[in-house]
Every structure is written in C-alpha cells, then in structure tokens.
Design goal:
heterodimer; A: 7 helices; globular; B: mainly alpha; 2 domains
Amino acid sequence: MIEALNVSMVYPNGIKALKNVTFSVEKGESCSIIGPSGCGKTTLLFIFSGILKPTNGRVLIDGKEVVSPPKNAALILQDFGLFPWKTVYENVCLGLKIRKVNKKEQKKIVESLLKNLGLMEFKNYYPKELSGGMQQRVAIARALALNPDIMLMDEPFSSLDALTREKLQNFLLELQNRDNITTILVTHSIEEAVFLGRRIVILSPRPGKVVKIVDNQGMGDVDYRNKREFFEKCREVRKSISLAI
Amino acid sequence: MSRSEKKHKLSYLIAAFLLILAWSVISHLLNSPAVPSPHLVFLSFIQQLERDLITHFLISAYRVVYSILLALSLAIPIGLTTHEKVVDSFVAPFIYLLYPIPHIVFLPLIVIFFGIGDLSKIILIAMIVFFQVLVTTRDAARSVNKYYIYSLLSLGANKKDIYIHVIFPFALPKIITAMRIGIGTSIAVLFFAESFATTKGLGYLIMDSWSRADYPSLYAGIVSMAILGFILYLILELVERRVCKWM
C-alpha cells in the first residue's frame, strides 16, 4: 500500500507546489492523478519515488516512510527517461547494472523482456532512431527489468499520436492485470485517467490539493473504452476538474 | 565503404588538388624564391626527411600530445564536477578571472619556474588548451537536464553512477568539439613555444630556415606542421566516431 499523508511541498524559490495531499493506493491497485498543468502532480510523483523530499508530511510504502528511491518501485518519465547515448539494450539494462546484477543474469532478463515487447531486433538502436511509441516501450521495458511492485509514471504517453497511445494504454492495462503491479499514473488526459485508474485523484491548480477521489470500479478491460459507463465516468471527472478550476 | 563515404573522400581529394593548383599558379605568377612551387617543396620535403625532419616532427608531436593529455586530464574532471554547486562556486571565479587573459603572456613566468626545457613548452600549451576545454566542459556539465538525473536516481544510482551514466556521456560531444578547437590552438602555440630556446621541433625548423632564407626547408617545415595538425584531427575524428555513435 502507498500512502501520502498531508504531503506539502514548497520549492526553495518559494513556489508552493502541493498542499496537504492525502490519499492512498492499495496494493495491486491502479491510480490516476489528474489536474491542470503546473498543479504539482509531477512533483508528487518525484516525492513518491523518493527523489524529492516533501517540506511537510510523509509518504509511506507498506507502512515504511520513503526517504530514498525504493528498490521495488520504477519510474517512467515523459521525455528524459531514456538516455540518448545508450542503446536500447543498454537503456533497459541500466537499472540491473546499477544494482550490480551479474552480467549473465542481466542478459537473460533484458533479452527475454525485449523479446516479449517486440524490441529484440532494435536492441542495438539508439532511442532517436526509434518512433515515440517504441521509445516508451523501451522505457517500460527498463522499468519492468527491475521486476517492480510499483510503477510510477509521469505522462508516459502524452507525446504520442492517438493510435499509438491507445495501443500502449492497452498494453499497460494488460500488464497491470497480469502482474498485479501497483501503478500511479500522472496524466492530463481525462480519458487516460479513466481508462487506466481504478482510483482517480483530482488535484486543484497550484498549490495542488486533493479536490476529489473518484472510484472507477468499471475499468480493467480493454473494451471499457467503448462503454457508456466509461463516457459517463469521463464526464464526472471533467465536471470535478472544472469545479476545481 | 558506402557510396556517400566514397563521395566524401573524393571531395577531400578535390579540395587538396585545388589548393595545390592555386599554390602552383601563385608561385608561377610571383616567380619569387619566397614562394617556391609545390614540386620544389615536395623535393625539399623528401630531402629533409633524409636529414632530420622526422626527429623535428616527432619532438613536436611529443610536445603537443603531452600538452593535450595534460590539459584534458585536469580540465575534464574539474569541468565535470562543476555540476556540483559547491565545486562550481569555487571554480567559477577562477575561470572568470583567468580565462580572458591571453595565457601566452605567462611564458616568462613559466620559463622562470620550469626552465627552458620541454616541460615549460608543454605547460604553456597545456594551459591554453586547459581553459578552452574547461570552459566548455563546465557549460555542458551545468546544463544537464535534471530529469535525466531523476530518472537515473529512480534506478537506485549513487553519485558515481550519475557521473558515469549521465554527466560524462552528456558532456562528451561538447568536450570533443572543444578539443577540435584546442588542437588548432595547441599547434599555433607549439610554433610559438618552439621559436625560442630550442634547436628541436618544427617551430625551430621553420624559424631557422627562415633566417637562412632557405625557402624550400621553410615550406617543408610548414607542410609538416600542417600534417601534424591534420593527423591529430583525424585521430580525434576516429575517437569521436567510436564514442559518440549516438549523435
């Protein structure tokens, strides 16, 4: 379980990013965080991943306070996640290398992942030689290489075209269902938040406060996107957001 | 070799040919002993090779390569660590105060402290290349996007990993560009450093043949200096192709 308890964040330059954010995500559950741009949702994600320290409040994972990047969590970023100077293979391998997994084991894990994600033939390519969708698949592969219990994602699909985005959303959904990974997804797309989050946390403009937490029991199926329920949920979320602004 | 690479090589040959052609035309028109024809220079170059041109060349190469290595071994680590605010606040004032000075004016001081041997020549060249590489490396190290670092930290990286996997590879193409400029400068300073208190090196050869009005030797020296610069440039190009494949 992941808990944010009264998390507030004020940057050294005086910008108030978050104010008393409290919510929790159950083990194996998926949660979307949505809010207007600049509402501190990325900051919140960096706090969950132990990279930034909140000025107030705490983040707990399975009851333990997060003070450094937790070993069982993987972070996926929008643009700067992959290193352009490393090949696909080297990028996916990086977390294992840093954790000093032995070379043979690294190769085994990375190659089986690349095979599964259809990236094997691109293993010696550099990120810029790949399409945006493939780049994000590599980023997901790198996260999965660490066999995480938790995936933290910052608008991972926002720079992709609509079709590729849907494909990757489906892929992510299948992954969640199969591996039971706890996911927190930051997004500014209402549809994405509703499609991928069993719980949808709506933040207000800066400083971000929790405006509403929407339950979304209907999700979990690729077909959900075409259901009436989905559209109604989107409408509900949209309404809450516009009230918050 | 691919077709575009072949074309690339051909255009180099054409450029070399045009330069030599222009040179012959000028020498023919001026008809002065100060501008001998390429063919005469080539003969003198071969003749000089049989004498001691190779020794002069090797000594110059030794001086300039050592200088560059010395400069890099200091400028790169210092430049990269300016990524840390603490280091930068210490290093930056020195850069601002020392970089704009033409370092060549330190020559008398260097000679006083390190004598008239190779060491003071190497230090003079190294000092100039050092600042060129340092300034560029520092700019690169400070402009690393923090999201790259966050991304690496989330994988459990420590300080050392950040330098190995992010800051150094990010700065490398910029360091190589700085070296490319530095090589040109180092050869220019080499010439200056070899024009006094030595009887070895291409700079000496040039000054000496000049004073004797031995123009073919003078040109042989100039051509050798150009070849030295060209070889260093080529080596750097090969290194860049290996280490900056991703660019």
